[in-house]
Amino acid sequence: MANLTLSNSRSDIEQNKLWAVIAYIGILFLIPLLAKKDSPYAQYHAKQGMVLFLVSVVIGFIAWIPLIGWLIALGVVALWITGVVNALSGKMTPLPIIGQYAEKLNI
């Protein structure tokens, strides 16, 4: 996905940065996933946001464990910040650890 043609990708990125950021706000990943099917940029970040959301739900239970759970939850926050920064920067870079799973999704 990261190999879009330069002219199409620049236009797509500029028009869909907001959609890409919305993809990282919890369940709201569904909005760009369903509304922007024609945008490879929004779809890429929606898939990343979906995997991050699913991981967050699981980690939400683990976060109750003192120290270890808190550190893992802090790692999820770091992934969220990384995703938002990538979306605003116009990058289609997979999130560390979980990004590989999002790239395999064919939705």
Structural class call reads: mainly alpha
- Provide the low-confidence segments as ranges: none
- The rounded Rg comes to 14 Å
Count, helices: 5
In quaternary terms, these chains amount to single chain
Largest sheet: none
Strand tally, please?
Answer: 0
Describe what this molecule looks like in 3D.
This protein has 107 residues and is mainly alpha-helical. Helix content is 69%, strand content 0%. The protein has five helices and no strands. It has helices at residues 6-22, 30-35, 40-62, 68-89, 99-104. α1 (6-22) packs across α4. The longest helix has 23 residues, at 40-62. The chain is elongated and about 45 Å long. It starts with 5 loop residues before the first helix and ends with a helix. The mean pLDDT is 91.
Layout of helices and strands:
Layout: H1 6-22, H2 30-35, H3 40-62, H4 68-89, H5 99-104
Helix pairs in contact: 1-3, 1-4, 3-4
Features:
107 residues, mainly alpha
Short note summarizing the structure:
It is built from five helices and no strands. With 107 residues, the protein is mostly helical.
